[in-house]
Amino acid sequence: MTKFVLRRVLLMIPILLGVTLLIFILRAVTPGDPVDSLLSQNATPEQRAELREELGLNDPLVIQFFRYVKDVFTGDLGLSYSTRQPVLGEILGRFPYTLIICFGAVTIGLLLGLPLGVFSALKQYTWVDSTILVLSMLFAACPGFVLALVLITIFSVNLGWLPAVGLASNLGYILPMVTIGVSSLSRYTRITRSSFLEVIRQDYIRTARAKGQTEGKIIIRHAFRNAFIPVASSIGIQIGHQLGGALIVETVFGIPGIGKYIGDAITARNFPSVQGGVLFLAFVFTLINLLVDLSFVWINPRLKSSFVYESESREKRILRKGAREER
Amino acid sequence: MKRENNDTVVSIKDLVVHYETHEGVVEAVNGVSFEIKKGEVLGLVGETGAGKTTIALSIMGLLPVPPAHVIDGEIILDGEILLGKQKVQKGRKKKDVVVAKSNHEMRHIRGKKVSMIFQDPMTALNPVRYVGDQIAEVVELHNICSAKEATQRAKEMMEKVGIPAERYYEYPHQFSGGMRQRVIIAIALACEPELLLADEPTTALDVTIQAQVLDMMRTLQREQQTALLMITHDLGIVAEMCDRCAIIYGGQIVECGDLEHIFDRPRHPYTRGLLSSIPSLEKDVSRLSPIPGLVADPMDLPEYCTFYDRCDKHCESCKTGDPDLVEAEPGHFVRCFRVEKGSV
Questions:
Q1: Which of A273, B183, B194, B250 is the right S-S partner for B306, CB 3.0 to 4.6 Å?
Q2: Is there a contact between B107 and A208 if contact means CB atoms under 8 Å apart?
């Protein structure tokens, strides 16, 4: 088990290196010069050259890359061009907002998506099932910013129940959470439905019926946990989508989260902030996926034994080695 | 609903079950009748698609409805009518309608009075729950007892089927096929049912394990005096396990009797065909002798004797209608015109 965690943590390094490299390449091909947005229009060419030198933009990209990687390993994500503050500090200050929204969105998605999926499967081929399916398709196909605007129109402009932008009160969290949550909700619904339909036809469900178990308990005790396995594996990926979606949704709702931070940084060609933000999100994403995979051991006991067997065979190998050496 | 009867545990009369599919009506079971007494083992032998499993599922009340549809018949288990005809007012006329016990009522019977062992042990257990809990579940459902007592009973049952009770907190994937089938047998027998339906319980196991599992089943069946319906296509198992045997073909019992009737004095050409297709150790033959032709298509059964097309002794008079099941000698029933006429 420890070995598995260790291996996964080590595997994060090449992933993050790859992400960094990708951002550097994108940056190289992106038109626009950060100096333009940092200095006023009437800055002299000397001033511009001086700033470029100061920011290290004159060095070859490879050198810049390795310098950056070295800094990252020491926990330094550089200074933001626009504020001259450490990027890491700025990110950490903004991340809680994004985290709260994402967490809320996952909760909304799972709390509604799982029951809807099960319900839809139980009512397969009825109008209830079709309605749920069509709606979930619709929401899955609807881009976040469109949904955001629709929700603002309904709940803020027409009904006046919730604030449209900002976090003046905690109510401001609700619309962004719903916007991100709804798109994942429809995915959870569909995954739950199809996996539940598969599980309910399994032999062990028939065994449970043959025992005289009630339908309700068959669903809860026997079907649900098995049907949850594919859903759980999609949660990690869904959170990835949500972190990406946060960029747009936070901009629409004016939430000072990490998505808006990156969005602003891109328009300002604020490279350290973009790099730092994306790298941080990638880190969070891999970490969450690691946690999801670990929770799998609890959800799906068949995996646990594969860890146990692994360590057992390792022990055996050591024993065998010891025996050989004794001889 | 209660009917007093001597020691008959289950009696089935004229059971007819059809499956209504898009391609047509599958006539799976066409008028099957039999009885099993307390402690008796009845073998139900037939090829794939002969309707064996459908009969068992009808008793359990677990037929997939739709497409399955019970057309006719009566099933009485331990004096209780599980399935039977009732006069129902329809418009002005009273009509006979086959009424089965509701799912709610059947729940108290399944697992307690009648249990079923399924064919494939690899998929019949829930992969994410402890095997012990899966045994305890059925005890808890039917014997009103605490969870602790149910656990105790589950451990007892595990020991009885030859699994150490320490393995209570293990998952099905940690068990081999034979061990899983033992768990399933433990589940089936945990509440000491009156009737056990074993649907090809050893088909998925290899031969040595088969013998062990059958042995264990036989011991437990004798101990609990359970009536056992042994569904199989293996006449060897029948010879080993059963007291009586019914041969089923095209959804009908074609021959039924004690073991000596079936094995020593088979009357129906199909039974003879089955017996002669068993490889013999004594005779020196290079080829097996199969029954020519294919199993009767249950979607397209003939009006006459269902075995006509494959029968080596058929004659023109066989096409006149469906033969009845007649008693050829006491306790030995055969469905064949030649027996009816007394020519065999």
A1: B250
A2: no
CA of B106 to nearest chain A CA: how many angstroms apart? 7
Which tokens sit at B263? 């094995």
Per-state percent for chain A, helix, strand, coil, to nearest 5: 80, 0, 20
* CA–CA gap between residue A214 and residue B63 (Å, rounded): 16
> Residues with Cβ < 8 Å from B329, sequence gap 6 or more?
B261, B265
> Which of B128, B174, B187 best tests the A interface by mutation, with the highest count of A CBs <10 A?
B128
Residue B142's closest chain A neighbor by CA? A212
Domain annotation for chain A: domains and CATH numbers = 87-268+295-315 (1.10.3720.10)
- How long a stretch of residues is chain A? 327
The contacts of residue B19 (CB under 8 Å, 6+ apart) are B25, B26, B28, B67, B68, B69
Per-residue confidence band for A195, with pLDDT thresholds at 50, 70 and 90: very high
Residues of A within 8 A of B107 (CB-CB) are 212-214
Tokens of B143: 């014997």
Q: What percent of chain B has pLDDT over 70?
A: 96
For residue B187, CA distances in Å to B193, B196, B212 come to: 11, 11, 18
